[in-house]
Specification:
about 725 residues, alpha/beta, Lyase, Ornithine Decarboxylase, Chain A, domain 1, TIM Barrel, 3 domains, ten-stranded mixed beta sheet, globular, Arginine decarboxylase, EC 4.1.1.19, Ala_racemase/Decarboxylase_C, decarboxylase
């Protein structure tokens, strides 16, 4: 029987239709995308659900790129920002007018942040006005969501006109909040949550001395004694709040911190004791705020209204007991639509708008307070992810792609040398192939592979023979259309550093190519990061998908393929670690402008260098540099004594090492400017960039080897 000549046989010659490429739509998609028609950006918008999760800030433009609409629904056509142009500006070399930043890259849009704040305030203002509510809304931003200095400063500035404040949950957070609010509205709240010791409470009381509107929220009953004692010692009349453990909670992942068994807050028994204690010491008038938290990503207004109504009853009871209540803090929970479904059935979406959320809160509080004849309180919320998620985009690059099981074109399968059983399996496979019997083909493929693997383990087959069997079987599976079409795209990213919530709690974010959206994606893929960790991959995507429609890489043509992770502006940066010593990404701050490019980069920071992440783990890069440099000098001296070696090698070593300490840990796609890669490509030990040494005989200024760390230069 002739061997099955799989090497030169075209796929479409095998029985069965294997020539077409089909990208299945998500089972939850609002529309089925016809991949056989002429492709357009609008089809990509449907395929990736951009019109759902991206509205009103992101869209696919006519050039096939992602556009950012910095002012949301108020963005004028000429104010759209092409994200690819921002990436080009950030990554192009300085000689071409770029900023020479390395990927991965976080792009921040403060205009989007400002719009989110204004929309939240407007939603509450509208609900208050239309429902005849007799107080106002005054929100705070929980800095734990993103403690970046410029984000916090922007929020304080943008929210100053409507008294928007901050919430802190630790001593470093209260320090940064106090500092930033010195430039904010004096009436803005500084809500002090979290577990507290005497130092924390002293800082909060100091805030009142500094005429900041600080509120100490009791998370534990024991904190009350500290507040009473320290306020007397510091001669400060505190403003006190308490966090209540509500009975209302939702069943999703984010509801685990609410309810009677939640991590934070006081029970009704503890609340009553706190009121009695404050009355005994003559400080009941200091109790002014009630705080609660149902949980993040509250899925529906029905659950929201239920929890707010329960809290409003508690608020009215505290008023009845003699507390001078003024504020009800509804906590976080305002969710965002990660998957574009506008559904409350999972942690990935919510079934309401900003306006519906605000209306539900206002109406629930008003109804309870009116029924109890209690003055309407100031409404405070601690919305974090709803404020900052949209304004930040993570850009990263796919550097290569390949199938998990390769179909070789240069390995022959020959019958000689195989056992009789293996030859029998092959003959059965051949017969099934000729009959076009797909199920039997799969059965005999499995039998043949298993038998040959056992033969290899016993030492009866060579690696060439095993490779021949593997190649044959993969070809057959592919030819009958049973192979896994999913490619593995290797991306220049650390999941643990930049998307830790995916690894930690299976949080999904929209991931989309930021260009080529006018071209049909002909592949499906999962994403594999740079870390030496099997968990460093993204194989779950919005819409319940286990792979993502992607374009084929143009590795030969030099084209680069950029992907964006959206709605990740909350938590990811603060939670990210340095697994495998991959540090934080580069960052640019982009404002919409009326200039020729439509935007202006107002701040650009290179990501953490290798030296930075080494320092974070208590290493000393300067000492490491000197140790390695000294080792190179010693070896060079030994080689010279033996009549070999190059007297310049030690200087070249210093140059290579300094660059490696200074560069980001991620792959450098510009190999011509990467010293280490260039050295390897040249098969040399060391490399010195002529441009860096000014073309003279020495390297670095004054003949020294310099280590460039960010904006500073350190001479070793």
């Amino acid at each position: 029987m002739p061997a099955l000549a799989f090497v030169d046989t075209p796929v479409d010659a095998f029985p069965g239709d294997c020539s077409g490429v089909f990208i299945p739509a998500s089972p939850n998609s609002a529309a089925v995308v016809d991949t056989t028609c002429h492709w357009s950006p609008s089809l990509s918008a449907s395929l990736y659900r951009i019109d759902g999760w991206g509205d009103p800030y992101f869209a696919a433009n006519s050039s096939g790129n992602i556009s950012v609409r910095p002012h949301g629904s108020n963005t004028l056509p000429h104010q759209d920002i092409d994200l690819m142009k921002v990436v080009k500006k950030a990554t192009d070399p300085k000689s071409s007018g770029g900023l020479a930043l390395q990927l991965p890259l976080i792009v921040r849009f403060p205009d989007v942040l400002k719009n989110r704040l204004e929309c939240l305030q407007s939603a509450f203002d509208f609900a208050i006005q239309t429902q005849g509510y007799d107080s106002h809304y005054q929100g705070v931003f929980p800095v734990k969501c993103n403690q970046d200095r410029f984000i916090i400063e922007d929020i304080v500035e943008f929210g100053s006109s409507f008294r928007f404040g901050l919430e802190a949950g630790s001593k470093p957070e209260i320090l940064l909040a106090m500092s930033c609010l010195c430039k904010g509205n004096p009436d803005a709240f500084l809500v002090c949550n979290g577990f507290k010791d005497s130092e924390y409470i002293s800082l909060a009381l100091l805030g009142r001395k500094l005429e900041l509107n600080t509120v100490i929220v009791l998370e534990q009953e024991e904190e009350l004694e500290l507040v009473i004692d320290l306020s007397k010692k510091m001669n400060v009349r505190p403003v006190i709040g308490l966090r209540a453990k509500l009975r209302t909670k939702h069943s999703g992942h984010f509801g685990s911190t609410s309810g009677e068994k939640g991590k934070f807050g006081l029970t009704t028994v503890q609340i009553v004791r706190v009121v009695r204690k404050l009355r005994q010491v003559g400080m009941l008038d200091c109790l002014k705020l009630l705080h609660f938290h149902i949980g993040s990503q509250i899925p529906s207004t029905a659950l929201l209204s239920d929890g707010v109504a329960e809290a409003a009853q508690l608020y009215c009871e505290l008023t009845r007991l003699g507390a001078c209540m003024e504020v009800i803090d509804i906590g976080g929970g305002l969710g965002i639509d990660y998957d574009g479904s506008k559904s409350g059935e999972s942690d990935l979406s919510v079934a309401y708008s900003l306006e519906e959320y605000a209306s539900a809160v206002v109406s629930s509080i008003r109804f309870v307070c009116d029924s109890k004849s209690v003055k309407h309180p100031v409404i405070c919320s601690e919305s974090g992810r709803a404020i900052v998620s949209h304004h930040s985009v993570l850009i990263f690059e796919a550097v290569s792609a390949g199938q998990q099981h390769e179909t070789p074109s240069d390995v022959q399968f020959l019958l000689e040398g195989y056992s009789e059983e293996a030859r029998g399996d092959y003959e059965n496979l051949y017969g099934a192939a000729m009959r076009g019997d797909r199920e039997s083909c799969l059965l005999y493929v499995d039998q043949l592979k298993q038998r040959c693997v056992e033969g290899f383990k016993e030492g009866n087959l060579s690696i060439e023979q095993l490779a021949g069997v593997d190649g044959l079987c993969e070809w057959v599976v592919k030819a009958i259309g049973a192979s896994d079409p999913v490619l593995t795209y290797h991306v220049n990213l650390s999941v643990f550093t930049s998307i830790p919530d995916f690894w930690g709690i299976d949080q999904l974010f929209p991931i989309v190519p930021i260009h080529k959206l006018d071209q049909r994606p002909l592949a499906r893929g999962i994403l594999s990061d740079l870390t030496c960790d099997s968990d460093g991959k993204i194989n779950k995507f919005i819409g319940g998908e286990s792979s993502l429609p992607l374009h084929e890489l143009d590795n030969n043509g030099g084209g680069r393929y950029y992907l964006g992770m959206f709605l990740g502006g909350a938590y990811e940066e603060a939670l990210g670690g340095v697994h495998n010593l991959f540090g934080g990404p580069s960052v640019v701050r982009v404002l919409q402008s009326d200039g020729p490019h439509g935007f202006a980069v107002t701040r650009a920071v290179m990501g953490q260098s290798s030296a930075d992440v080494l320092r974070a783990m208590q290493h000393e890069p300067e000492l490491m540099f000197q140790t390695l440099k000294h080792r190179a000098e010693e070896l060079s001296s030994v080689h010279k004594a033996g009549g070999g070696g190059d007297k310049g090698n030690e200087k070249l070593a210093a140059s290579c090492l300094a660059r490696s300490f200074d560069n980001m840990p991620y792959l450098s796609m510009e190999t011509s400017t990467n010293a280490l890669t260039a050295a390897i490509n040249d098969l040399g030990v060391y490399y010195c960039d002529e441009a860096a040494v000014g073309g003279g005989g020495g390297c670095g200024k004054d003949g020294k080897w310099s280590y460039f760390g960010g904006s500073d230069t350190f001479d070793f």
